[in-house]
Amino acid sequence: MEKINKKWLKEEILFLKKEFEKGDKNKLVKKIGRNWEAIYIKARRLNLKRKVRFNLGKSNGQWKGGVNEDYYNRIARENLVWECSHCKSKKKLEIHHKDRNRKNNRLSNLMVLCSKCHGKEHKKLNGWSLKFKKCVLCGKTKYPHFGKGYCRLCYKKTFRKEKDKEYRLRTQEYQKKRHREYYLKNKEKWDRYYKSAQRISNGIQGR
């Protein structure tokens, strides 16, 4: 049995500081001779962090050719200056591929941009959109392309009304079906209710 309350030696602490960042659990447990929980608690007290927790890059079993955002984000953070290359802002940063190929993650092909500059860069390459040069309805390029050749405002004006009408018709049809089903299930009760209501109304009118 391992002694949990055993004091840490200087050699063990030095070894922990060197090897904990690499993240090899089995090596630390064998060399130090303690449980992983005790080693982890001691590392937290010494403010140590594990840099590598799993295999990165091609050695990982879930490798998808470098298309994942985390992969090229990590490359850019390690090697490039983390600020927008156009306006030099440090908010809402994204990574732009110059040749539009996400699999090409060379440093010469990557560029750090904010969300606004990233949109402008794609606008230069594509124009207003891939198929349309301007909005079909208003004929302007002030607002970005939203869908089907319409800008954001025109799309909402044209298609939102149609969607609202469809939704109302669907709800009305659904309610009618539900009422019909409920009436057929409880037909006898409703017939009795209507008959009693008619008798009462006839009696009041007779007076």
Describe the overall structure.
It is a single chain. The radius of gyration is 34 Å and the shape is flat. Helix content is 51%, strand content 7%. It has helices at residues 10-19, 25-32, 36-45, 69-79, 115-126, 152-185, 187-206, and strands at 93-97, 110-114, 145-147, 150-151. Strand 3 (145-147) and strand 4 (150-151) form a beta hairpin. It has 207 residues and is mainly alpha-helical. It has 3 domains: 1-53; 62-126, no CATH class; 134-207. The model has no long low-confidence stretch (mean pLDDT 77). Helix 1 (10-19) packs antiparallel against helix 2.
Described by the principal axes of the CA atoms, the overall outline is: flat
Strand order of the largest sheet: 1-2
The domain count comes to 3
Q: Tell me how many strands there are.
A: 4
Main beta-sheet strand count, sense and barrel state: 2 strands, antiparallel
Low-confidence stretches: none
Computed Rg? 34 Å
The number of helical elements comes to 7
Fraction in beta strands: 5-15%
Q: Topology, pairings included?
A:
Blueprint: H1 10-19, H2 25-32, H3 36-45, H4 69-79, E1 93-97, E2 110-114, H5 115-126, E3 145-147, E4 150-151, H6 152-185, H7 187-206
Antiparallel strand pairs: 1-2, 3-4
Helix pairs in contact: 1-2
Task: List the defining traits of the structure above.
two-stranded antiparallel sheet, single chain, flat, 7% strand, 207 residues, two-stranded antiparallel ribbon, 3 domains, mainly alpha
What is the compact description of this entry?
The protein has 207 residues and is mainly alpha-helical. It has helices spanning 10-19, 25-32, 36-45, 69-79, 115-126, 152-185, 187-206, and strands spanning 93-97, 110-114, 145-147, 150-151. The strands form 2 sheets. The protein has a two-stranded antiparallel sheet with strand order 1-2. The protein has a two-stranded antiparallel ribbon with strand order 3-4.
